[in-house]
Automatic annotation (TrEMBL):
This is AB hydrolase-1 domain-containing protein. The lineage of its organism: Eukaryota, Viridiplantae, Streptophyta, Embryophyta, Tracheophyta. GO terms for molecular function: hydrolase activity. The keyword Hydrolase applies. It comes from Arachis hypogaea (Peanut). Signal peptide: none annotated. It holds the Pfam family Abhydrolase_1.
Amino acid sequence: MDEIQQKFIKVDGLNLHIAEIGTGQNVVVFLHGFPEIWYSWRHQMIALANAGFRAIAPDFRGYGLSDPSPNATFSHLLTDLLAILDSLAIPKVFLVGKDFGGRPAYLFSILHPERVLGVITLGVPYVPPGPLHFSKLLPEGFYILRWQEPGRAEADFGRFDAKTVVRKIYTLFSRSEIPIAQENQEILDLVDSSTPLPPWFTEEDLATYGALYEKSGFQTALKVPYRSLGEKINLPSEAIVKVPALLIMGGKDYTLKFPGIEDSTKAEKAKKLVPNQEITFIPEGTHFVQEQFPAQVNQLILAFLAKHT
């Protein structure tokens, strides 16, 4: 990883951390999910740089090495992305978003289509912003409902060090079932601390994540995405993603069991919102498909970039 350079860009009074590798004219910006940071894209960044692309992965405000931002919103992530591109004098990019990082990728392409050559998302199809009805469709113990409750996740996470919290969430999110706790059980209690890490996630990887979440804490991570999911974003009346797009899903990703999500990955429905989208499934893939099957994901990304460069 030593060849990946680390730098900071001043945005809105905050120092935002970005990782960067490669010098190609075509630029790809990677947007992480939770409980991830820029490091979750390590395999893709090196592969793209070797293929002649410039790869950039920021830590969102409040995450990793970026400055804290307890009042962060999805709107901030969009303005931060624009500021990063302007600061680096990058006119157009490909955006790659994972998990909740897919939302700013899609929305940025709608708000600034002249700056986006294409969008690739992993684990999350495009769902237009609006009210969510999880409480009507899923039990009280559904992890997002629990983490939206002020103080609940803070107390749950606060029982462990940051490394253990990441370990438990990575293990939990690597399963194919939606994390749902019993009435008198906390979400992190769904994973025993002695459960082995997934084979594709090393103790060294965990130590890297743990150290960075030890620095940042989980305050912003709980605010964005979980407590900002219903945020109103000012979009054009026709909130359609018109740029070329690729959705990569793991066939065993637990998010496919969210109400309506599997339907959103089917070509007929997806074409209404993302008319130029290809959809690919990696059958054995889980929620962390880019770390679990990096060679396959890299190949899919590079093929998409070659088609649209």
